[in-house]
Write a sequence for this structure.
């Protein structure tokens, strides 16, 4: 069962009923008939989907990054092509693509690889702009793992650019955030960039 039906009252004391009513109003606003067969359950479905796509608000990144392991080496750890899906806070339309994360451990302190994917989810599943999403992922890793360096790149395709406005289908937005050694050392940054572009 969806979290929407588990809690009839959502954040800010807004009832599920009031939320679905708002979607019905939007359907009327664009000239649709919310009572026709295909649309009857749409307000419910939309609210459930929206809650699912913003689940990240209820997860604390510290919980994900607090379990660490000891490794023998302090070499760069890189995970690339982590899929993400987020919602642009300006249009409530999706933007999606891939994230690449690298860090250089301090005293061999590492996290499980799935934790990096989880941290991408936690910050993606909120209303976002890609620049801030990139910073938040890098800042969280920097704060809780205290590595010698962290590098994060997001490559995203934004529906709000594809389906409305300028309607550019193939533009990819690339954002990056670097800390520590990746910021200070051109060699480390170049190594990261060349590994993710392969
Ligand atoms: Zn947008």
């Amino acid at each position: 069962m969806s979290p929407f039906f588990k809690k009839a009252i959502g954040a800010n004391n807004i009832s599920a009923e009031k939320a679905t009513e708002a979607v019905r109003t939007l359907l009327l606003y664009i000239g649709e008939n919310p009572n026709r067969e295909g649309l009857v359950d749409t307000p419910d479905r939309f609210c459930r989907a929206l809650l699912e796509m913003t689940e990240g608000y209820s997860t604390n990144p510290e919980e994900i990054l607090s379990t660490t392991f000891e490794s023998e080496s302090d070499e760069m750890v890189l995970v690339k092509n982590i899929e993400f899906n987020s919602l642009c806070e300006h249009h409530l339309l999706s933007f999606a693509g891939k994230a690449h994360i690298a860090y250089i451990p301090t005293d061999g302190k590492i996290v499980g690889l799935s934790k990096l994917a989880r941290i991408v989810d936690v910050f993606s599943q909120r209303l976002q702009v890609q620049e801030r999403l990139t910073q938040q992922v890098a800042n969280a890793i920097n704060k809780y793992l205290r590595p010698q360096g962290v590098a994060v790149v997001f490559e995203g395709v934004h529906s709000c650019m594809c389906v409305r406005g300028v309607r550019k289908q193939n533009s990819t937005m690339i954002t990056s955030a670097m800390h520590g050694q990746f910021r200070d050392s051109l060699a480390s940054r170049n190594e990261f960039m060349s590994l993710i572009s392969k």
Q: What stands out?
A: The mean pLDDT is 93. Residues 3-53 form a domain with the GTP Cyclohydrolase I; Chain A, domain 1 fold (CATH 1.10.286.10). Residues 139 and 179 are 8 Å apart (CA to CA). The chain has two domains: 3-53, 67-196.
